[in-house]
User: Which sequence fits this backbone?
């Protein structure tokens, strides 16, 4: 599977823990979601809602002149699994290029081993977040 180095490390971290600890590890990743920069925090209309999520979840992507992607997420701390997945993506995609992000398999979260630990509804939300993120990254290439 083609994963950026950072995301491969995250997947490896999850593979190294037993099932009963995967949720705890996911919750630890809530701390990896950086705060929104002022240009997004002061203009929430620049964030796109992922409507497929049960939780109010918003994202934005930026691509710099070196084709490196930065992802930003806004989701409430009261939604630790969703926020944890945002942390997984924030940490795992840090420094990734557009091509690397677009090559991430849509179902990579299955490699985290979460299917037995969280509901199918939450897994579909994770699919939707990654799908929306990849669509936004692809749109930068079109512009």
Assistant:
């Amino acid at each position: 599977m083609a994963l950026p180095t950072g995301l491969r490390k995250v997947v490896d971290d999850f593979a190294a823990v037993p099932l009963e600890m995967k949720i705890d590890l996911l919750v630890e990743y809530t701390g990896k979601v950086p705060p929104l920069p002022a240009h997004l925090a002061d203009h929430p209309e620049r964030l796109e809602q992922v409507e497929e999520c049960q939780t109010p979840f918003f994202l934005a992507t930026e691509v710099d002149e070196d084709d490196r992607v930065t992802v930003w997420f806004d989701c409430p701390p009261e939604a630790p699994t969703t926020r944890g997945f945002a942390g997984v993506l924030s940490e795992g995609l840090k420094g990734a290029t557009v091509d690397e992000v677009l090559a991430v398999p849509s179902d990579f979260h299955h490699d985290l081993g979460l299917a037995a630990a969280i509901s199918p509804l939450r897994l579909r939300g994770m699919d939707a977040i990654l799908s929306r993120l990849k669509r936004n990254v692809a749109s930068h290439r079109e512009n």
About this structure: The chain has six helices and three strands. The mean pLDDT is 92.
